[in-house]
């Protein structure tokens, strides 16, 4: 079912192209926004407009949005390399391999943590949408490391609140290009969808508050190994904030990394690993902490830098 939206153009989009404004407002790609405009599904002050027309703050937009793609129903699907680190009656902690998303989505045809656990016979809480049962936080497909999922209704409620209230200790290690200055610091910069509407996220005025703490563990000739502590958990947060510092994660071509460095180190994705996860157990009310070693591709890259 189509979604009809009517709203004024925010002053912050004054002077933007119509296709860019539509993409920004509704989280679409520029191409998809242009298709809606060409189909006559976008009116500005009651009249059709061209995709390159400039918008003005306060102009009245009427947009007919297509229905979102429905997320596929999770089905048991074994996931090679998905390791269970801890399991009890309420929670399950896994070490996620590369190339695996947290849960099925409309645009993803590869494996997911959720389907891998279903294939292992794990029963997760049914709280939340069917395709996201038990999911209380996520890792990018090509980010490896620790994830916790809820098996009971109580655990789901308590863990969702803990992530929202920032009481979960999330630690990552990342290899970035160059040497951050200072060697230890905090990036406090809001994040929202990139204005290009191409799937990237960016530091954007008026975006969602996002805070990343970093500390240099080891410095190499052309790269640094950092420990990251996240206060918030925005999509691509570490990748966006490191790119904003002009020290993108090695191998993260989406955010401007130098492909020659990644190629020399044999890294075919962003060097980013969720290395530790600590929180209060949702029903036993005791602190628990879990750790994960680097997978082979990331470990080899660091070993090579040390040899160099």
Automatic annotation (TrEMBL):
It holds the Pfam family PseudoU_synth_2. SMART domains: S4 (SM00363). SUPFAM superfamilies: Alpha-L RNA-binding motif, Pseudouridine synthase. Residues 16-74 form the RNA-binding S4 domain. It comes from the Bacteria. It is an enzyme of class 5 (isomerase). GO terms for molecular function: RNA binding; rRNA pseudouridine synthase activity. Responsible for synthesis of pseudouridine from uracil. This is Pseudouridine synthase. It comes from Murinocardiopsis flavida. The lineage of its organism: Bacteria, Bacillati, Actinomycetota, Actinomycetes, Streptosporangiales.
């Amino acid at each position: 079912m189509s979604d009809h939206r009517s709203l004024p153009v925010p002053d912050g989009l004054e002077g933007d192209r119509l296709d860019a404004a539509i993409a920004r407002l509704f989280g679409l790609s520029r191409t998809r926004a242009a298709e809606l405009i060409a189909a006559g599904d976008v009116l500005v002050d009651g009249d059709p407009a061209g995709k390159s027309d400039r918008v003005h703050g306060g102009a009245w937009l009427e947009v007919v949005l297509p229905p979102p793609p429905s997320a596929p129903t999770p089905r048991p699907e074994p996931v090679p390399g998905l390791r269970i680190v801890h399991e009890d009656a309420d929670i399950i902690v896994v070490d996620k391999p590369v190339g695996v998303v947290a849960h099925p989505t409309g645009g993803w045809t590869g494996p997911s943590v959720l389907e891998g656990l279903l294939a292992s016979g794990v029963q997760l809480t049914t709280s939340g949408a069917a395709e996201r049962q038990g999911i209380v936080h996520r890792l990018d497909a090509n980010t490896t490391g620790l994830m916790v999922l809820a098996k009971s209704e109580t655990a789901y409620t308590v863990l969702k609140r803990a992530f929202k209230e920032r009481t979960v200790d999330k630690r990552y290690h990342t290899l970035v290009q160059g040497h951050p200055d200072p060697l230890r610091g905090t990036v406090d910069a809001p994040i929202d969808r990139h204005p290009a509407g191409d799937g990237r996220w960016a530091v954007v005025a008026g975006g969602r508050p996002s805070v990343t703490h970093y500390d240099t563990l080891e410095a190499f000739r052309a790269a640094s190994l950092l420990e990251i502590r996240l206060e918030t958990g925005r999509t691509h947060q570490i990748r966006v904030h490191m790119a904003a510092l002009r020290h993108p994660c090695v191998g993260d071509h989406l955010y401007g990394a130098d492909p020659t460095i990644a190629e020399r180190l044999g890294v075919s994705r962003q060097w980013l690993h969720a290395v530790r996860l600590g929180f209060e157990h949702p029903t036993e009310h005791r602190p628990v902490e879990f750790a994960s070693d680097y997978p082979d591709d990331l470990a080899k890259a660091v070993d090579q830098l040390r040899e160099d």
